[in-house]
From TrEMBL:
The keyword Transferase applies. Keywords: Kinase, Transferase. It comes from Phytohabitans aurantiacus. Gene3D superfamilies: 3.30.420.40, Winged helix-like DNA-binding domain superfamily/Winged helix DNA-binding domain. InterPro entries: ATPase_NBD (IPR043129), ROK (IPR000600), ROK_cs (IPR049874), WH-like_DNA-bd_sf (IPR036388), WH_DNA-bd_sf (IPR036390). This is Sugar kinase. It comes from the Bacteria. PANTHER family: GLUCOKINASE, ROK (REPRESSOR, ORF, KINASE) FAMILY. Belongs to the ROK (NagC/XylR) family. GO terms for molecular function: kinase activity.
Amino acid sequence: MRIAEPLHLRLLRLLRDQGTVSRAELADRLEIPRPRLLAELDRLVGAGYIAEAGMAASRGGRRSTLVELNPNLRFAAVDLGASSVDVEVSNGRLEPIAAYTESTDIRSGPKVILHRVNELLAKAKADGVYERLDAIGIGVPGPVSFRDGVPVSPPIMPGWDRFPVRELLTREHGCPAVVDNDVNIMAIGERHGGVAHSVDDFLFVKIGTGIGCGIYLSGEVYRGTDGCAGDIGHIQVDSHGPMCSCGNVGCLEALFSGAALAKDAGLAARGGTSPALAERLAAKGTLTARDVAEAASEGDVTCIRLIRDGGRRLGGVLAGLVSFANPSMIVIGGGLAHLGHILLAEIRSVVYRRSLPLATGNLPVVLSELGPRAGVTGAAVLASDLAFEQAT
Ligand SMILES: [Zn+2]
């Protein structure tokens, strides 16, 4: 059984998600006695979380006053990828006020990358976006100890193991911070403002440089004992397959991921099986998963086959997860989501064929609605939840 959430948290979240609400409506929505609500509102106005917002339209009798989140609340959201950094500063309702995107290399190490994050936030401050931050949420592309606020043995992030990310951000900006895995923040974002808005049990599959899965069970992210739940990229799908970056053989992401597709594309271009890729390689000198997507949409048979093969392997893993967790939706996101409908069709066909009919009777497999903004949206949700929890 879940412990009832404290009143201030429910109240602040409701204002975050609904905007301006009257005192009378709040009492109805939260189903609490009016005197208790009014006392709590007074306290939160005094503490600077809530502001008065004028009079509500009359419902008959005395008019109720409106309240909203303090318009000066500011949250910073950071999404670190293997090759990019996204930073957004939002208001209390999580509407972005400033956004920055840059290419970067996570292997530069935590000092370089977090220094750049701090510079971007300092720029936002200098531009008048905020005076002070109320909380920061950050996602990193590897396993995280959510409790300690540190990455743990992240395979693609040399130098980041146990680096005190949360502590550094808290010290630099004088506000609480929360660190999570990049796939979890995307799942949280998609549930807050995307396609999984009204869904309590779903899987969010990120296909990018690697493959990971965010798991929502009963309305909560499931992170596992050590923070690496959902690391499905390292499930073995072919015992005779290629070596993976993790040291094992035949992992899903060694066969299908951004990195694996780029490698297969190179082989196809040089081996003469794909004229479209050969042409692109000659023009650019290098190939990425995006080239495979574009050539496939032009009808290149080899590229279509590469995407189908990948979709079949991923679908096989997802069919197992569907039997295990019985989710009510699967959301596909990440940089390779632009492989689009060929990929989606293959995943659907395998999942529907291999899972039990009861589990797939009503199981949408859909693309992320928020796309590249899923991560920062989720990081902002986590930041706001943290700030609100501390409003005691
Ligand atoms: Zn692996």
